[in-house]
Automatic annotation (TrEMBL):
Residues 140-198, 231-265 form a coiled coil. GO terms for cellular component: cytoplasm. Signal peptide: none annotated. This is Caspase recruitment domain family, member 14. The keyword Coiled coil applies. It holds the Pfam family CARD. It comes from Poecilia reticulata (Guppy).
Length: 729
């Protein structure tokens, strides 16, 4: 330690001014390069060898353009201070630039007070050294922070370099892939060139083919001209033959008329006899006048075909038409020819499977008959074709696609036939053997087959869900004709029968389910003017019905009318119900609306207040139940306007009537009048074209229980499908 403290160079205190500045000038260049004047200014000013003015001059002179020049100028200013300037400079180097101090003086730097020259007091020196050390520590910390930042920066740069190297590696791979794709593209271009060459060859061959086609078209044009010329010659020949045929036909008609005239003169006119009971009730036909030739006596060639709007009319002579062909289908799909016997007359005229039979005309017992089978059931079509003997005329419509679709459905058992219609049962039938359904009066059935396999007098039918078009239990029921023959005629239409509905119709002796038998009206009928039909009150086993789905709120009609009008006032106070109000009409308005069937009922006969169709529609459009204080006559008028009321008949007994005695007296009515009204209106319900709900007398005991039951009944009836019969008149 003693050896390290021994100075290696001369003692600065022992050197003279000249020696000190000579030592400094020898190292002037090194000092100018390594010293920053701003670092030494605080110490030099502290020892008072430089002033603030000197510092400003060094830093602000324009000719001192760099740090070396400023340091050199600072040395010149210190030279003017003599020995103190040199000592102060060297001590500043020892404090701030220890390495440079060692190079200049050859001595190691030290901060011991004895090493300083005494230009500054000890306390001031200590204070300065402390500030210098603190500044150096701050600079050291800043240097360390900067080193940390630089280290972080170096790490980030190293990561970037690694990423760049990875990218460079990827680029090399991409470059290799690019070279491979370029080689592949070159090979594809060579293939494209080959394809272009082949395409050119094809174009050449195509051009040659077009030239050949042009030559063929020229030859074909010549052949067409020859064919047109031949066709014109054939048409001229056909026209000449048809003219000759028309002449012969006119002569034949004249001869036939002459024959019938002679027959009429020779034999008296036979009187019409009543149809035998074995004759079907639906075969009511008009006689053809014997003074004129029946339409089917005018014969034509067996293979003559006349096309009228996709309907083919074929004429043929046969003994029994149904023995030569069979049919499938029904009223929903249409009746189609299914099989034709080869070699028969039907086969000879060109009848083939897949044609729909639209109409058949034939002659039977000097009567001209026309059967329209376009919408007929399979049972009706089979019966109609079974009646055809002798000369007949069939109208056929080609519908091969529909026929094949029907056969596919029959094979898949999705349907049993082409029949589909709904009927209302008018009498109760017990269950029988072999799957016969047990049905009640007013049940709705869906008939799906009018000729099930192995039966002739049964229908395949299903019971229908009351609230939707859904088939339930299925089975067989007797057909219409079988029930007509088995049931006894009803003598008294007003007699009470619990399980039978008596129907009134204007079609006496006609099956209302069959619509195909049309009558050929002729000018020379034996009976002169047709006799108007008479009303027939009879038992019709079934009647056709169609489903309707009315809006949410249907009008309410309560019967008997005396009780209904009393209950309407109570129901009108409920939410969702409103009483139908009458309208006051002038005479002209009353006449106009009456002509349009818009007047449902008059409040008083001959008065100007009426319940009209518009008043009902006004309430229904509000989404409310319209309470109708009307009678049964309004039902058909409402149906014509697609308004279907809920009809509820409330059964009344003497016991029930006594419960309502006080309320009846308030309205000026008596118990006897209520019972009489109920008895008179109940038979009229069978004449309604729709179903109704009947409440038994024992289902209610007083007005409150009756109103509670009515709310439930109205809600149930509102959900049901409305079934309406067609007009039987």
């Amino acid at each position: 330690m003693a050896e390290e403290s021994v100075p290696e160079g001369p003692n600065l205190k022992e050197l003279s001014e000249e020696e000190l500045w000579e030592l400094i000038n020898d190292n002037r260049h090194r000092i100018s390069l390594g010293v920053r004047p701003c670092i030494l200014f605080p110490y030099l000013r502290q020892v008072k060898v430089l002033t603030e003015v000197d510092e400003d001059e060094i830093l602000s002179r324009h000719n001192l353009t760099n740090r070396c020049m400023r340091t050199s100028y600072m040395l010149d200013l210190l030279r003017t201070q003599g020995r103190n300037g040199a000592i102060a400079l060297l001590e500043g180097l020892m404090i701030h630039y220890p390495v440079l101090y060692t190079h200049v003086t050859g001595r190691k730097p030290s901060t011991e007070p004895s090493r300083f020259s005494g230009l500054i007091k000890y306390s001031e020196l200590t204070e300065y050294l402390i500030r210098a050390v603190t500044g150096m520590q701050t600079e050291l910390q800043e240097a360390r922070n900067e080193a940390g930042k630089m280290s972080t920066r170096c790490s980030s740069l190293e990561s970037e370099v690694s990423q760049l190297m990875e990218q460079e590696e990827k680029c090399s791979h991409l470059q290799a892939e690019n070279e491979r794709l370029q080689r592949h593209l070159s090979s594809l271009q060579r293939e494209v060139t080959k394809l272009k060459d082949e395409k050119c060859d094809l174009y050449i061959r195509y051009t040659a083919s077009i030239e050949e086609k042009s030559a063929i078209n020229g030859r074909l044009h010549d052949l067409n001209l020859q064919a047109y010329q031949s066709r014109d010659d054939a048409q001229a020949m056909i026209a000449r033959i048809l003219a000759e045929k028309d002449t012969l036909r006119s002569q034949l008609v004249e001869l036939q008329e002459a024959v019938f005239t002679l027959q009429a003169k020779r034999s008296p006119r036979p009187r019409l006899r009543k149809s035998d009971k074995s004759t079907p009730i639906f075969s009511l036909l008009l006689s053809v006048s014997k003074s004129s030739a029946p339409p089917f006596l005018v014969r034509s060639r067996p293979k003559a075909i006349r096309v009228n709007g996709r309907v083919l009319s074929l004429s043929l002579q046969c003994e029994a038409l149904l023995s030569q062909l069979s049919v499938v289908g029904g009223n929903k799909s249409g009746v189609f020819v299914h099989q034709v016997t080869e070699g028969s007359a039907a086969h000879a005229v060109g009848i083939s499977p897949g044609a729909q039979i639209v109409e058949v005309r034939y002659e039977q017992n000097s009567r001209a008959l026309r059967m329209v089978l376009e919408d007929s059931t399979l049972e009706e079509a089979t019966w109609a074709l079974g009646q055809v003997t002798g000369f007949c005329q069939l109208s056929l419509r080609p519908r091969q696609n529909d026929y094949e679709a029907l056969l596919q459905q029959l094979q898949n058992s999705t349907m049993s036939s082409g029949d589909s219609f709904y009927i209302r049962v008018n009498l109760s039938l017990p269950a029988g053997a072999s799957g016969t359904l047990a049905v009640s009066c007013n049940d709705i059935l869906h008939v799906t087959n009018t000729r099930p396999a192995g039966t002739e007098d049964l229908w395949q039918a299903s019971q229908v869900h009351p609230c939707q078009l859904l088939d339930l239990q299925s089975g067989t029921v007797p057909n219409y004709y079988r029930l007509v023959l088995c049931c006894e005629p009803v003598a008294d239409p007003n007699s009470e029968q619990k399980a039978v509905r008596i129907v009134s119709t204007g079609r006496q002796g006609r099956n209302p389910l069959w619509v195909s038998v049309d009558e050929e009206n002729t000018n020379g009928s034996e009976s002169g003017s047709p006799v108007p039909p008479k009303t027939c009150v009879t038992l019709m086993p079934y009647t056709l019905v169609t489903p309707h789905f009315p809006p949410v709120c249907r009008p309410i009609l309560l019967l008997p009318t005396i009780l209904g009008r009393m209950l309407d006032k109570k129901l009108a106070s409920w939410q969702g119900f409103q009483l139908c109000e009458p309208e006051t009409l002038t005479s002209s308005e009353h006449a106009a609306r009456l002509q349009r069937s818009e007047v449902l009922e008059e409040v008083e006969p001959g008065g100007n207040q009426c319940y009209t169709l518009q008043s009902v529609e006004k309430v229904v459009k509000k989404g409310l139940h319209c309470l109708l204080p009307l009678g049964l006559d309004c039902v058909r008028r409402l149906h014509r306007s697609e308004i279907f009321p809920v009809i509820i008949f409330i059964g009344v007994s003497a016991r029930n009537a006594r419960k309502l005695k006080s309320k009846l007296q308030r309205g000026g009515q008596t118990e006897e009048q209520l019972l009489a009204c109920s008895k008179s209106e109940e038979p009229l319900l069978d004449k309604l074209p729709c179903l109704y709900h009947s409440m038994a007398p024992d289902s209610w005991c007083d007005q409150n229980s009756l109103l509670t039951s009515l709310r439930t009944v109205i809600w149930e009836e509102q959900r049901k499908v409305v079934w309406v019969e067609p007009d039987l008149w």
